[in-house]
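Let's sit down with a protein and look at its sequence and fold side by side. Once you have written the record down, we can walk along the chain together.
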Amino acid sequence: MASRTLLLEIVGTFTIILLGSALHFTYASSGNNPLVAVFSAVNESIWEHLKLAFWPSLLWMLIVMGPLRKTTNNYFFAKTAGSYVMVAFIPLVFYSYTSFTGESIFAIDIASFIVAVIIGQIFSYKLLSYKALPEITETASIVAVILLATIFALFTFSPPQLPLFQDPITGHYGV
């Protein structure tokens, strides 16, 4: 089963990267549809780019739930933790390197997204292979992923007025 799980996590890595890349453009190409806004980047803020990793990873979680949940340990914890790792890694890299460069570098931003997905998927795989954790961990993980999905949806339309949420090109926040 470990090889099947590894294969699905590798396929998931490519799927998340491809879907996330596509979501960068879906809001504008939808004619600024508010429903599409929830799942797509609506501006160039760091926050909006985190959706490009989160939503595809959540979709992948749902896709592989059938084949993996009963054959691995800690399914929801592993997949939720992997998503959180992705979402944390991107701003960590961005704010680290821009503190030295003073500006965003497109190639580093793209690379950090790809590396974030890879690290998140490795993290997920390791947790799927780890000994079974208490059931409360699974329940808490479901709550945590629902909470993050809710926050992404709410902050699309009503983001805090903080630098993380500000579009560096327009100076605007959210939609």
Notes: The chain has a mean pLDDT of 95. The longest helix spans residues 2-29. Residues 2-165 form one domain.
